[in-house]
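User: I'm curious whether this sequence folds into something compact or stays loose and floppy. Could you predict its structure so I can see for myself?
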Amino acid sequence: MKESVERKNYYICPWKIGDIYAFRLESKIAEKFNLKGKYILLQKVDEINWYPKHIIPIVNARLIEADKFSVPIKEEQFLMSESIQIAVDSFEESYRISRLLGKFGKYKEELSSEQIAAVTDEFGYLPIYRFAIIITSAKQILDKFFFAGHVDDISKTKNESILNSNMETFNFFPKDVEDILVDRYNKFNLRQAEIYKRPKN
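Assistant: Here's the prediction. I'll summarize afterward.
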């Protein structure tokens, strides 16, 4: 009996690949960066196991103006929205060596300038977009997100760096998603992070 009760507490995210959930930006930080009233779109692109036996979604986030958003969302609306970058990867950090070999089968020194330019931004960084949302109960979805539709196209954002393993994916709690995405949009999409103020090599 105890085992069956515990099993019921495991949350398996019912979102399908391509499903889009949305929420309206309302926070103080959204207002600070003039984003209040716009919408965040979260498209499921994969999933990951989460301790002890939950299955949670991996998503890409996009920003869309309120007057360009309708439910169900149209594919052209979705594809015209702006992808939100949440982090950067780097060729320079030693712990990325195995990742480079996994991506290219080569070390950086063996890559041509064209190969590097094809996967990096103008500052030489590898942009990261996808992240996992730590949803462990249906109530967490109802409190924050609403279903906005489905778009089959889950193709990579231009120059997107996808980590070798889903276990390396960034992960955020639902209650933190809004503030984190607004902060990362300012830092990475608008290039306000300190890394972009350093002289290029």
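Summary: The radius of gyration is 18 Å. Residues 174-189 form the longest helix (16 residues).
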